[in-house]
Amino acid sequence: MSTPTIGIIIINWNSFDLTHTCLKSLEGINYKTISVILVDNNSSDDSLKRLSAAHPGIFTVENSDNLGFTGGNNSGIRKAFELDCDYILLLNNDTQVEPDFLNILVEKIESDTNIGAVQPKIYYEYDRSVIWNAGGTYNPMLTLPRTIGENKIDDGSYQVTKSTDWITGCAFLIRSSVVREVGLTSELYFYGCFDDVDYSMEILKKGYELIFCADSIIYHAVGMASKSENDNPEGVLKPFFHYLVARNRWFFIRRHAKCIYLIPTLIYQIYSFLGHVAYFTFKRRFKKLKAYLHGFLHGITKPLDESRLNHTTYIQMYK
């Protein structure tokens, strides 16, 4: 029986150092039948040229526009299909991996054809004893996903491999056959949040199981792409990130909220909205407040049509 081939998709956008470190980490893994697919989202620097020179064995996809996380991943998935990969791994460029992480993931997903996708245990890069993600829960009454283990010291409580309600897009190993059945990721979300939960929901609807693999380990330098380049009174995260979070939350609710849970979902969202407005106002982060309100409005009013969304304006407006 031949070893399954894995297409590992990594997105780069003006991030040579992060992406280079991630690719170097992948060179040390034990699993060898891989094709690393580097998707460049129209970088304005020379990072793609430098990365291609430093890692000559990788495949590259050059997008003519910044398609975000979702569009970039879809470009990589199409390349993985061309390469006839058995599995596809969506992997953030700000991660580093343990040598056996992929072996463990593949062994688990190969053990049961009902498993559609799996994820590793993810620690913070800045402190490798603190968990960032150990799977996810989903509360349908509030249309609310939560991360398991976030910011918890790993005291052994997260050592069980088990089903999870959703898988983080930071490290998402999925069967190519399942991608063909479910379709590509929704480009409504662009980047930020809810895209991975949305995709997990679509996989579950097809009857597949999602698994958190406790023994597979990677590390994540969280939020590097969302951080402002310079210190400023508005705080660390770019206002554009808050625009996306507010908007994508409502896109997700509109796509997945069950009618019987609309009232508790709306009540929770009203409290969340008021809390965010109060926080940004108190902190005098008025650019973030404007971005959040703009995203909130767009999340409710914009059509759920990928072809009608143009993010370039808002990237510049809230950078």
In summary, what is this structure?
With 319 residues, this protein is of the alpha/beta class. The chain has helices at 16-26, 47-54, 68-82, 101-110, 176-182, 195-205, 239-256, 262-282, 286-301, 312-317; strands at residues 6-12, 34-40, 59-62, 87-91, 95-97, 115-124, 130-133, 136-139, 144-147, 152-153, 162-163, 171-175, 209-220.
Give an account of the 3D structure.
The protein is built from ten helices and 13 strands. It has 319 residues and is an alpha/beta fold. Helix 7 packs parallel to helix 9 and helix 8 runs antiparallel to helix 9 (286-301). The mean pLDDT is 93.
Average of pLDDT: 93
- What's the overall geometry? globular
The main pleated sheet reads as: 11 strands, mixed
The end-to-end distance, rounded to whole angstroms, is 50 Å
- Runs in which pLDDT lies below 50 for 5 or more consecutive residues are none
Could you tell me the number of beta strands?
Answer: 13
Structural class: alpha/beta
Count of alpha/pi helices = 10
Order of helices and strands: EHEHEHEEHEEEEEEEHHEHHHH
Helical residue percent band: 25-40%
Strand content: 15-25%
Gyration radius from CA atoms, angstroms: 19 Å
Draw up the topology in text.
Elements lengths: L5 E7 L3 H11 L7 E7 L6 H8 L4 E4 L5 H15 L4 E5 L3 E3 L3 H10 L4 E10 L5 E4 L2 E4 L4 E4 L4 E2 L8 E2 L7 E5 H7 L12 H11 L3 E12 L18 H18 L5 H21 L3 H16 L10 H6 L2
Parallel strand pairs: 1-2, 1-4, 2-3, 6-13
Antiparallel strand pairs: 4-12, 5-13, 6-7, 6-12, 7-10, 8-9, 11-13
Helix pairs in contact: 7-9, 8-9
Features:
10 helices; globular; alpha/beta; 13 strands; 319 residues; 11-stranded mixed β-sheet; 22% strand
